Amino acid sequence: MTDFKRKVIYQIYPKSFKDSDGDGFGDLRGVTEKLDYLQDLGVDDLWLTPFFLSPQNDNGYDVADYRRIDPKFGTMADLEELIAEGGKRGLGLMLDMVFNHTSTSHEWFRRAMAGDEKYQKYYFFVDGEGGQVPTNWQSKFGGSAWEYVPSLRKWYLHLFDVTQADLNWENPEVREELKDIIRFWKDKGIKGFRFDVVNLISKPDIWEDDAEGDGRRFYSDGPRIHEYLQELMRDTGGEEMITVGEMSSTTLEHCIRYSNPEEKELLMCFNFHHLKIDYNNGQKWELMEPNLTALKQLFVEWQIGMQEGNGWNALFWCNHDQPRIVSRLGNEEAYWYESATMLATVIHLMRGTPYIFQGEEIGMTNPHYTSVSQYRDIESINYYEILLAQGKSKAETLEILAARSRDNGRTPMQWDDTAYAGFSETEPWIEIPDNYKMINTAAQQYEERSIFAYYKQLIRLRKDNPLVADGDIAFMEEDNPHILAYQRSLGEERWFVWNNLTGDQETVRLPRGCEHHRIILGNYESADINQEKCEITLRPYEALVLSE
Ligand code: TEU
User: How many separate helices (H) and strands (E) can be counted in the chain?
Assistant: First the structure.
């Protein structure tokens, strides 16, 4: 499995992709309807977020049965059709395995609650000393990470919602159950897996309070994490699959181990450090202007670090947990096209495998909701109350949600300018941004100068040029916080990639060796290169790629 370096993966949030049966809720047949569109874009594999049986308290990340499809999304026959139709178009399917926790509606948890000791050992049911909560750890969605069960006189651990109970990977029976689930889906023709918060699965041996934080330092990249991943891959034929781990609050050292082929763990990992550069003091719910210097430093650290350690990055800006990147780091009004295409260039030509989140390829924006009633996400709704209780005004709280809510990435895919953006024939489960009349696939798919066409070119470049997949990376303009620039090289070949991260004009030096260049790609009609002075002037949000 080495072709993953040549691939571009497309993430689908099925609930918001395409509704085929008119209930306002996207489904698997909706995905099948749009396969030609995805083939035209040129992506390789499709990662679908969870559509398994679930009470949907966390939009499917609370799984009640890993082998059944939630009727809201369709049937097993629908999935089989999607696999077959995808296969005809060279599109492989990747599933999202939520193995850190199950829904409290899962049969295992229900049996545990009914007193079955075998299943209590599948989770962390803990006696608190003197009836006290076992530790002061906080749930990532707000409040304590422990819930008391009076009938058992024990507490159970939930790092996420109270209806998402953490599984006990220390128990070998749990590990065998999870391996069986992988085998089940592989047999159905699934090509790969994205493992949800997989670096949180190994918990410490003793439960202790965290005097410094919310507890994450005890369980992120926990004590037996590498052993568990190796075992899972060894026993399920991991080397035949596309595998990516979602790593929460991780380190470079661990990610090298997760993705270095010699360790036989995963092919690649997501980390989130570059998406916290607008968190004030690391706090998601405190707004701050993006720190571009920090952004650059993080890219340098992770790109060079992973290269030296022979690890592999999953490259991304957007997913179903993140605000839209053009709203966040770009300028969605004055430079919508330029900033969306520049940000795409940054990611797609670095060393790693790029992921596109549905709608990113047409420059979809945040919806700019103004009322709490427009939000659906459990985290947003919890934090609305938490922020108000902290004394923030309603207006300030709504401003924070509008910038930070995970719902920003979950609005329906904008297919055309008809009612409900062509997503559904009826009112969708979550409101569509007003700009769908202008921003939609119909307006872009066959236009020469469109964000869609630009993404298509970036994907093509990776397929046609081994340098993009296999080349080395080195950074340029390291001291200029406004320009993110790097070189890629393979053998005799060398490319230079410049990205102006700002709305101001910037002049940079043309590097030696680049006097007789060729323009590979750019998001302005022509490049402003002064050959005599050996300079390039980069206009607002300009991206420019030259080869020697
Ligand atoms: O997300 C993991 C995660 O930690 C975050 O991205 C989370 O949204 C953030 O810390 C909250 O501020 C994954 C899934 O992508 C997410 O949708 C699930 O809710 C979560 O795991 C639990 O399964």
Answer: 17, 25
Q: Are 194 and 244 in contact (CB under 8 A)?
A: yes
The answer to whether residue 2 scores a pLDDT higher than 70 is: no
Mean pLDDT of the chain: 97
Residues 531-542 have pLDDT tens digits of: 889 999 999 999
Give the global pTM.
Answer: 0.97
Interval between CA 273 and ligand 1 midpoint (Å): 14
Confidence tier at 512 by pLDDT (50, 70, 90): confident
**CA distance linking residue 254 with residue 311, whole number of Å:** 10
How far is ligand 1, taken at its centre, from the CA of residue 321, in Å?
A: 6
HEC string of 120-184 equals HCCECEECCHHHCCCCCCECCCCCECEEEECCCCEEEECCCCCCEEEECCCCHHHHHHHHHHHHH
The alpha carbon of 36 and the centre of ligand 1 are apart by a number of angstroms equal to: 30
- Which tens digits make up the pLDDT trace of 378-426? 999 999 999 999 999 999 999 999 999 999 999 999 999 999 999 999 9
Please tell me the residue having the least CA distance from ligand 1 atom 22: 61
Give the H/E segment covering residue 69: strand 65-69
Q: Which residues are catalytic?
A: 196, 246
> Residues with beta carbon inside 6 Å of ligand 1?
58, 61, 98, 140, 160, 196-197, 246, 248, 284, 320-321, 379, 406
Strands 242-246 and 543-547 turn out to be unpaired
Q: What is the mean pLDDT of residues 137-146?
A: 96
Residue type, 21: D
365 CA to middle of ligand 1, Å?
Answer: 20
- The pair of structure tokens assigned to 32 is 């099948």
Contacts 24+ apart (CB under 8 A), 307-310: 307/351, 307/472, 307/473, 309/252, 309/253, 309/256, 309/260, 310/256, 310/260, 310/261, 310/262
Tokens of 493: 């070949």
> If you average pLDDT over residues 279-284, what whole number do you get?
95
Query: Which residue in 60, 139, 141, 63 sits closest to 320, CA to CA?
Result: 60
What is the number of the ligand 1 atom nearest to the C-alpha of 100? 23
| Cross-strand partners of 244 | 194, 268
> Residue 84, class by beta-carbon neighbours within 10 Å (0-12 exposed, 13-18 middle, 19+ buried)?
exposed
Residue nearest atom 6 in ligand 1 by C-alpha distance: 321
| Closest to 265 (Cα-Cα) out of 228, 303, 240, 304 | 228
Give the rounded percent of residues in the chain with a pLDDT score beyond 70.
Answer: 100
- Specify the range with the lowest mean pLDDT, choosing from 79-83, 184-188, 339-343, 532-536: 532-536
Summarize pLDDT for 164-216 with one digit per residue, the tens. Answer: 999 999 999 999 999 999 999 999 999 999 999 999 999 999 999 999 999 99
The two tokens of residue 43 are: 């992506």
Residue 25 · residue 14 · CB < 8 Å? no
Given a contact cutoff of 8 angstroms between Cβ atoms, the answer to whether 524 and 455 are in contact is no
